[in-house]
Amino acid sequence: MVLNPVKREKKSLYDQKLCGLLDEYLQILIVAADNVGSTQMQNIRKGLRGDSIVLMGKNTMMKRSIRIHADKTNNNAIRSLIPLLVGNVGLIFTKGDLKEVREEIAKYKVGAPARVGLIAPIDVVVPPGNTGLDPSQTSFFQVLNIPTKINKGTVEIITAVELIKKGEKVGSSEAALLSKLGIRPFSYGLIVLSVYDNGSVFSPEVLDLTEDDLIEKFANGLSTVASFSLAISYPTLAAAPHMFVNAYKNALSVAVASDYSFPQAEKVKDYLKDPSKFAVAATAAAAAPTSSAANKENVEQSEEPKDVEEESDEDLVAGLFD
Questions:
Q1: Are 123 and 162 in contact, with CB atoms under 8 Å apart?
Q2: CATH class entry, domain 5-109+189-207
Q3: E strands, the chain, where?
Q4: 129-130 and 27-32 beta bridge pairing
């Protein structure tokens, strides 16, 4: 099949543009663009202008350009983008903070009505309250089993009703009712599906992790490694402190149960021979803060009379000149 010269030139220019962006940018967001209009897309491009570039195109063309770039540069890591190019998707090349770029993209979501045949991305709940519709419109509510009553000449919904569940198709009755109520339940915009960062591909949920989350996950992993190492008696950096403590406990148990001893066990053996030493140590520890508090009170009390005397002298001197 011979390509039209114009189409061939367009493909060549697209290849050059995409390959140039792959050379320049190390961070890429793969985004879904379902139900995103041209005006909305233009606003997104303006909002990201400066450190990010949005590139759309046919999946076949994007895959072709990525393969060409990978062959030219021997950068096989970039091929991990190819399986992600499924459906109506685009690429956002950025040099900014990935989390901030995703938050900027989310600002451009717009409300949309529930059209017949659309797959609901969220649950749609009709809230209770006055609808402002006249009683002749009750047939819509009856078809959908929505409890209503007539209040001051208008239809009022008694209780909240889940009209459409996530993943279901929007029917004609649901769409008509939501339109009459002025409810635009859905919002559409670019949705980040995956993140490519210098050869690594990961889920966008990773961007929500804080430093505390990372520390917690690291601590959990360290605890798992230590537990596993202790269970199989295999020394690792994570398990070594526990192994030394356990070994000390075992040696201490032998020393306590026999005449064998070593310097670190002498104090424990002394306490076991004379339990009164525990009471002496506890009494001394409790007396220390008590004595310090008493000394503080004595110091404060010793200072108070000086203040009183100074005040009384001043009063006396002032009285002489009345």
A1: yes
A2: alpha beta
A3: 27-32, 52-55, 89-94, 110-112, 124-126, 129-130, 148-151, 154-157, 161-164, 186-188, 191-197, 200-202
A4: unpaired
The tens-digit pLDDT sequence of the chain (322 residues) is 555 778 888 888 998 999 999 999 999 999 998 888 888 889 999 999 888 999 999 999 999 999 999 999 998 899 999 999 998 999 999 999 898 999 999 888 888 888 888 888 888 888 888 888 888 888 878 888 888 888 888 888 888 888 888 888 888 888 888 888 888 888 888 999 999 998 899 998 888 877 887 888 888 888 898 898 888 888 888 888 888 888 888 888 888 888 778 887 777 777 777 777 666 666 666 665 555 555 555 545 555 544 444 444 444 434 433 4
- pTM equals 0.60
**Kind plus residue range of the DSSP H or E element containing 19:** helix 5-24
Question: Is residue 184 within 8 Å of residue 196, measured between CB atoms?
Answer: no
- The token duo for 28 is 């890429």
Give the phi and the psi of residue 136 in degrees, each rounded to 5.
Answer: -70, -15
Q: With contact defined as beta carbons under 8 Å apart, do 52 and 93 qualify?
A: yes
Q: Is residue 192 within 8 Å of residue 204, measured between CB atoms?
A: yes
**What amino acid occupies position 75?**
N
- Classified as helix, coil or strand, 140 is helix
CA distances from 175 to 59, 119, 306 (A): 32, 12, 87
Q: Which CATH superfamily is domain 115-186 in?
A: Ribosomal protein L10, N-terminal fragment, domain II (3.90.105.20)
